[in-house]
Amino acid sequence: MSYPDRNNPYNFDAFIDWRKGFDYYGDDEFLQRVLKRFAGKEFNSVDAEARKFSKKVSFKWRDLSDAISVPEKRPYMMHYDGHRHRIDRIVRPEETRILEREIFSEGIFSAATNPWLRLLKMYLIYQNGEACVSCPLVCTEGLIAILERFADRPETKMILKHCREGIDGDFGIGAQYLSEIQGGSDVPANLIEAVRDGDSWKLYGNKFFCSAAHADYAVVTAKPSGSEEVGLFIIPSWLPGDRESEKRNGYTIDRIKWKMGTSELPTAEITLDGAVAYQAGPLERGVANVVGIVLTYSRLTVGLSAAASMTRAAREAEKYSEFRSAFGLQIGRFPMLKAQVDDIQMRARRTTAGGFKLYGDFLSLEGGLKGGLQTDESKDLKRKRFDVRELIMLQKITAAWDCTDALRDAMSVFGGHGVMEDFSSLPRLFRDAAINELWEGPRNVLLTQMHRDFQRASAWYPPGEFISSVLRGAGDPITRDMGSEMEDLLSHKSLLTMDEKTILVCRRWDDFCHRLYHEYQNIALNEVDR
Ligand SMILES: Cc1cc2nc3c(=O)[nH]c(=O)nc-3n(C[C@H](O)[C@H](O)[C@H](O)COP(=O)(O)OP(=O)(O)OC[C@H]3O[C@@H](n4cnc5c(N)ncnc54)[C@H](O)[C@@H]3O)c2cc1C
What we know:
Helix content: 40-55%
CATH architecture of the largest domain: Up-down Bundle
Largest sheet: 5 strands, mixed, barrel
Distance between the termini: 47 Å
Number of strands: 11
Strand content: 5-15%
Bound molecules: flavin-adenine dinucleotide
Number of domains: 3
Strand order of the largest sheet: 4-5-9-7-6
Low-confidence stretches: none
Mean pLDDT: 96
CATH class of the largest domain: Mainly Alpha
CATH superfamily of the largest domain: Butyryl-CoA Dehydrogenase, subunit A, domain 3
């Protein structure tokens, strides 16, 4: 009960002050334990660096990320300068440029950066949402991975150096343009034409989803004239000497899309009209390399960024449940709400633990990533490579899916304030999470792909043995039951036949894959809690 008070003293200051002062790494004891468990002997050095780094990401970069998220700061196009030169300048707020410069100057992808520190830095950065840096970061990582294998001429070696180590303190930024208007998942249906021009190529046609369109370089898929094979190419956004005059390399940016999420990031539609391109790897391996190498990094990042935004959501929802009262009771003391908060926390923790465990598996992969299902390696290595490949897809679909659920639940803890974009960052993270679910392979596509992969591999890797390998530590009933369930699902020949039975198998396969990855995450979480 309360009496009227026209000078209502209510405020949110205690909650806001706590949130303002929270250090993403220094104050997160669980994250420190995760790092300790999975980084092993690297822990001490990474921990020391992470503490310094976290001061930037938790305060200044957090505020810059919030500042650029309002509609009036969205990037926009300036197609011509005042002298009728076509420039296609993407105008972005000064805060974005500062954020980008400071983050890229960290040299996250430098050969000298410890991989665990790289992972941790990215995880902390992702707690601030897209902010026009998360996508460009991972696109740059993918571009570097491709060039580390295939840079074979001065231009591509220079691009590699610019992106990985920086040139005079300036770090190159990468993008990846695969999707066309007729299809994003179906890369083999690409229509962009590549025409040989001496020892390089020229590209012609349209790309319909080009995120990080402000980048310096892009990995582009295209078909050489008269060929059905999709090759992989690198295009610089400006040829040497043209950057200052903003003369783009044989392409125009037609428009920037107006998106629900990742709205600080320019996603453009472009027309290539003779863009100079450098071949990256064998032409007939374009799809295998872009999927097996570039998209693998992107998919790992989707998992990691889902974990990061869930972590932030869980933290803020839990604290708010301790701060806010209703009907004379702290809301966290309503069992209904307590269950919801615990659930968000559990999802955030298992996704984080799973993401770090999988990164450890990925790092220990002898010979690094390779495109396609390899057949010329020892049985053990081939199986390990297969485990990592499938776990990355499983993580991508599961973490992205769980993330939108966890974010929505966290927003509901805040009641009506949960959807207010100037009350917290959660609505923005929720909008970004919806995008994460779609790009880098939508759920249905990856589920279909995995079903096909497991069938193709079953001659040298029976499903039961795959389950025993990836769920090592889960115990007998789980591995046995999941192994036989998987065998049964894979005995269905194809997920592409249109009949009632296949539709049922698709439903079961979807549910099975989700549960399978949760089991992997649970093992990871147990390892942290031990
Ligand atoms: C904000 C944003 C930014 C993006 N940025 C980029 C970028 O920078 N570069 C880039 O290349 N792309 C980018 N994309 C495109 C993205 O990768 C594609 O949207 C995605 O690959 C899906 O392609 P699509 O939209 O053509 O959908 P479609 O391929 O038409 O798919 C439609 C539906 O059909 C399902 N489907 C398709 N094939 C199968 C199958 N074999 N089995 C079962 N189901 C199937 C899909 O799961 C989906 O549900 C971006 C997308 C978004 C939303």
